[in-house]
Amino acid sequence: MSTHHTVVIVGGGQAGLAMSWHLKRLGVDHVVFERDRVGHEWRDRRWDSFCLVTPNWQVDLPGFPYTGDDPDGFMPGAEVVTHLEAYAASFAPPLREGVTVTRLRRTPDGVFHLETSAGPCTAGQVVVATGPYHAPAVPRLAERLPAGVVQLHSSQYRRPEQLPDGDVLVVGTGQSGCQIAEDLHLTGRRVHLAVGSAPRAARRYRGRDTLAWLDAMGHYAKGVDEFGDVDEVRLRANHYMTGRDGGRDIDLRAFAAQGMQLYGRLRDITAGSLGFAGDLAANLDNADAVAEGIKDAIDRWIAANGVDAPAEDRYVPVWQPPAGERTLDPARLAAVIWATGFHRDHRWIQVPVFDGRGYPTHDRGVTSCPGLYFLGLPWQWTWGSGRFAGIARDAAHLAGRITAAGRARMAEEVSWLAGTATETFPRLEWAA
After folding, report:
1. For residue 383, what are the CA distances in angstroms to 19, 66, 217, 342?
2. To 10 degrees, what angle do helices 14-26 and 77-91 make?
3. Low-confidence ranges of the chain (pLDDT < 70)
4. Which pLDDT score, from 0 to 100, does residue 409 have?
5. Strand 204-205 and strand 362-363: pairing?
6. Same structural domain for residues 180 and 297?
7. How large is the C-alpha radius of gyration of the chain?
8. What are φ and ψ of residue 122, in 5° steps?
9. Is residue 428 assigned to a domain?
10. Which of 63, 159, 165, 317 has its CA at 20 to 30 Å from residue 4's CA atom?
11. Is residue 432 part of a domain?
12. What angle do CA 150, 155, 158 make, to 5 degrees?
């Protein structure tokens, strides 16, 4: 393969497909390179009982809104894959599955050169839609665990039966860590959970899903530039809750009352001991405070708008942790699951658009390099940017920038060609 495209989209998940839908509707020549298959992230990096945390009505891709019979339900992982496959089939994007982009660079003449597993190609513009979750992040202290303890990253966990009999330590309380801990707990496994600083939210409040209230309040439309510290907002952990069994709260205190062992952050591993910080009480209190703060905001909005909503009693903690630090003998553990997130890996992009942490610097996905864009990043523009809820808005914005940039480049080339009468050039076209 050695060819040129007006636009190359790298990544064929929901972000890349949404971008392709807009470009195809506008008649813009493009191709979508997907390293694996459509839905790979949902197909191969989720456990069996996984469900979306966001309600089905938020699965609103461009030209393909949710039309099922359970808008307030939560799609299981397999259904998400099926939905994305149906989306691709609905408009037949120029999709090439099984093609890995291994290098991207831009020459001084403004042309992007891509090296792929199917051969080289060039592009006038490139959209990176590979998301933020590239390489599993496991701390180096994992190397200090005894060799007999099975270790998995959360992306490798599928079901409780996958693990040997015995106690399991889950490290991390983002959405994945809490849901995996619950999955194990519900089967009767003895679970130890290292609790971090992730916030939580109630699944429902005053008669509606909490996310439905936040949507009505305009939270999903609030741009990241409306916050005081953009970088801090983009690094925030997501609130933990679950869509399992129709959706419910995840209350770690209730799990503890039922026998789950809670600890603070995993601090160190030495011979014969895992040491945990003494911050468990603070972490639980802070998570509860965030959940109650969201309820406060909902209450204020209900009152200000005269909405008829049932009253609801507030949360009362059912368990209090003991004070101080705790330790755990690794000999008690059969397995450890590292729910410690992912690293970004953009080493294949050899264009200077990254900050000192490796994060792509951009404004609503538009980088400082003309013609290079990102789509599908968390808080790219709004809270919904990294979710199904905000992909359509972000993709539409980039489509407008791409077509405007394409028309400008065409005008420059036409102007140059007008002064060159001795050579024959192909006709330039740009569909808008």
Report:
1. 19, 20, 13, 19
2. 10
3. 1-2, 406, 408-432
4. 59
5. unpaired
6. yes
7. 24
8. -125, 165
9. no
10. 63
11. no
12. 70
